[in-house]
Fold each of these.
Amino acid sequence: MESSRCKTFVRNEMNKLGIHDMTVELGKIEIMGELSEKKLQMFDAALRNAGLELIRDKKMQHIEKIKAAIYELVYLEDDLPKPNNSDYISKKVSLSYTYINTVFSEMLGTTIEKYIIEQRIERVKELLAYTELSLTDMAFKLHFSSVAHLSSQFKKLTGVNPSFYQKLRNRGKVKP
């Protein structure tokens, strides 16, 4: 749940099931009391119809918390000083970095650091498409050590440099 609209939807669906004593946060619902299997299935069906998913597996819950923390790092924390990724994520999910990196790698087949880089490059694509920021500003905003570092990571993942990507994007050849 990344938006207030998702949270409102979840609250409304829970209220329809007669569940009013709950806390709804980013990626987490806390219900005071028990929920029958039938109500849980009904809730799960409502979520799926809306393109959402109920995650019951503990490891997948950890993965979703890690992804939420990374989302915050890449999309919400860009104007703050660069945090230490491992410390930031560990603090957000309240688990040791060694454990969460192992679970993340085991479940998704990539490391947290590689995933962060992929998300940062996706953000660069969006910035190239929808803003007039310079590569220097993007590098600073997304905590790359330099424009050269941003460009090399971008090319490594997309196969083209940011300027060429932007030209292709402006011609309608690629989508962000």
Amino acid sequence: MRLLFVLLLGLALLPEPHLRAADAKRLTIGDYFVQLPGSTFEAPAKDWLKFLHQPKSGVYDSANGYLSCTGDGAQAPFEAALFRYKDDRPLLAVCQGELEGKNSKYLAFYEAASDGRMLEVPRDIFPIANEKGYVFELPRKGRTIIVRTEKGGKLKGKYTWNGEKFVEER
């Protein structure tokens, strides 16, 4: 009887599998951002994340999956937004400007590799190519990227993430 009691007590104290999954920390935009390829910015992404914690250097909004940075003399301003696929995989959008030109001119997308590093993916999930006379505004809240003409800032379109690709709002 004593052995049975010890066994039952031991089983009761074992954590249930679904509790362990629920307790797992969901990764944030900062976690994914620091895994970007070293060639993405003029300095490692982890250094830019530290830079963002200084006054007047930009915005780090972990709760909404958004960050923007003023850059410095060697790095153009940039912003990043975290989107998620329907199966919860991350898609990180990074938009950079030119050093002495327009902000938000170059848009790239990154997904997590099996080792956790973020790798650039083809642009076929977004219908507008880079360097076509457009600038891109990433959302601080929501899932819609706004595209404007480089000259004049006229609205070209709004493209909303549906969990698989960006689709134009009609």
Amino acid sequence: MEEKLKQITDTNPNCIKVVLYGPESTGKSTLAQELATYYNTVYVEEFSRSYAEAKAKNNLSITKDDVLPIAIGQMHLENKQLHFANTLLICDTDLLETQVYSQFYYDGYCPQEVKKYAQENTYDLYFLTYIDTVWEADGIRDQPNNRLELFNQFEQALVATKKPYVLVKGDFKERLNTCKDHIEKLINHTH
């Protein structure tokens, strides 16, 4: 079980990994796609979205029993996409985001193994997306009124786990430029 939550490190070992991270409806997926296109690489989709959509088709909601399968699915996608990345992998979420959501929705509950790998899996930089975007309903999103509380929990998790992060805010172009500037610094620093 735990092996399924662990990052592969022997494939593409010099690949820079960045995470789009933050509350729902803050532009993470759009940024991930745009950055992957710009850098001619791949991005890791948010597994929980397709998982939630599949459950919704059967009139089911996500419960705390789904947290571990979602985490395993996310890491499976990330480890698979690492094979196709060039020198940069863009992740549209990670296990720390899964942990924050789990604790938010389920009164502090998160499976221990998810918390363990949320801490142990490493990324070069997190892009923490601020809530200065319009919240858009899409049938899956459900937190239009708790955005600041959620944002604060996301930031607190980064601080508590000592993860490197940059705040991303403003319109889409500003967000994209912030991400590009910091990715360029990472690329120039590692090459």
